[in-house]
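for the writeup, i need someone to sanity check this before i put it in the appendix. the sequnce is what the collaborator sent (i think, or maybe the updated version? ugh). structure was predicted straight from it, no edits. if anything looks off just tell me and ill rerun, i have time this weekend
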Amino acid sequence: MADETGQTDDRARLFEHERNVEIALGQLVTRSGFGRLSGSTLAHIDMAGRFLAGALDPATAAAAQTSDACPWAPLVGRIGAVALRAVSPATADQHRETLLALLELWSRTPMADPAVRLRRGRVAASVTAARDEHGAAVAIGGADAEWVARKNPELSFLDSAFGQGDPPALGRVVDVTDAPLGWGTADQLTRLIALVRAKGPVPWDRKAVDLLAGKTGLSRTTASVALCGFLGHPNARGGKPTPQARKTLKVTLGDLEDAWFRDLEGHTDEDRLELLADVLPQDPEELWAPGGLSEVALRLAQAWQQRFGTKAVAPLDTIQAAEKVAPNITGAQLCEWLADPGAVPLLTKDLDSWLESDDTPRYKNQKCVPAAETLQLRNLIEAVLLGLRWSYEELPAGDPVREGAPAAYDLLLQRLAHPGLLLPACLFDVAWQELDVITDRFGTVPYSGPSELTVDYVDDGLTVASLVEHQRLASLFFRPAAYGVDARTERLAEVVDASRDSRHAFERVRLLRGKGAEAMAHRIRSGALPEGAYEADPSASAPSLVEEVAGRLDVPPDSAALYLQLLTLADPTDRNVRKWNRWTPARLRKAADPLVARDLVIRHEHRGAGRKIFLPGPWTQGPPPQETWKTDLKTAAEAEDPHTPFIWRPLPDRFTQAWHHAQKQPPTAPA
């Protein structure tokens, strides 16, 4: 440690930052029982450093203890986490200065000397500082000596061994662990401080975010805040970036909260500090070099994998495309569930649910419990169902999300077959009629569950329905395991379909048990589609049909494939067609020319359509604008098979139906 001469003014300047320390450090050490960072933090670090270095005797160090000092010991050996936040563009300037002041002070202590053997732990303390020929030990966040001697409180401590023997103990040691220094030597800290003050924060690099997300399976939001050292709870003081920083990182408060619960909930302060401790380069100047932040991302990814393992990694494009698939689920969460369904507890373990009273002062209500798990399962049902169709149609063969979707579908069907599962169905509008309107449909057998209810229910084995005199709406619940077994399903379906308050669980279960979802899952499993190809490309998914259409229309195969897409698909924009078919713009134009020449399609500028090629005839305004001929196609197809919606049929079947319908009723412009 540097000589005391000339340090007084420096300490006075450093301690001006005391009031900002808690906010600047955010949640790096303030959760999980570590206490609250106080105004004496820097003074306490300074005292402990000088004592361990031999500049203070035990009595002086003990006299300098205060109950206001925070237990900052978790930072020992992990000061790199603080340095990462100090160089980040997401750190507010006034907080950056505070962190630099802390790092400057730290650089002059034994905590920045790799040759010093340090340990941290907890002790039932009888004293707050001790020294002998073997070493020194000091409490972190103690109080006056008389109170400590009387109470023997459990305190954090730091000790340093001088030789082979153990340092003196401050009392009964509860736990202790070595705290070796990784990144953060005095030279590294000093150089980093000078670089930040000369060059400003490290430039933000979104490629580094993509790299970290891709290597770990973390959301892009978590990857962004991790690269900035902001891994605290987003609602905690100092735990989230400022509005300006969020603009730089392109994240919202909602994104931060979602990311926390998805990626960080359950990880301790120690986990987060350890994760960030050694990700900076040995030479701090490399941070400002091109690709410097990407190198940090690589080290951070390795640290995450070593500490927490690797989540199922979906391509970044897939995650972004998934954002709007399931309304209640983030794109990252959806991709994680589909790519690695075996890691989702609700997909691997049956859930028992039942009714429990949830009365208000005005109404007697019942709800399914356990409420949180039931709601999550309903969201999971929606996500797996919509994710199955989306991944089947929109993702290429070989994508891990698409390949995992059938397994998620199978596991979900197993959970839905559990007889103990009860889910909300809808509110049945009985229009103030007598209770016979309910019992005639659902019988008179009382519902029996583990909780006593304040409302009577009848139970026909599939449907559980409330019986409330003089009430217009009756609550209906259903057991997915009994769905489709007999006529009870039809009776419930009639009510749900007519309900003004139809809830998604019943309709989702109906679709999951339908032929369409089964066929899509089978199609993915079959491996019939070449790797990298899209099902929406008929040249890959229905090559014999493309050959037939090309021969009948006397057009090239590319033109036949494009014609089938225009006949069948809801949104064949130029961008989508190029993606599905892996075409260049020139190849798309060339494929369209023969169709235009034969009046099979027309070129037209239509705002918001995303394409310039349409079937002849009228179209709806959208969004997106679409030919009304497709409505007729859908109506005709569902008349032939009313049990399977057109959009839930495998694409080769849809292409075939569209082609046959076009032969019977060609799309034509009005006379």
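Confidence is low (pLDDT under 50) at residues 1-6, 30-39. Residues 371-394 form the longest helix (24 residues).
thx in advance!!
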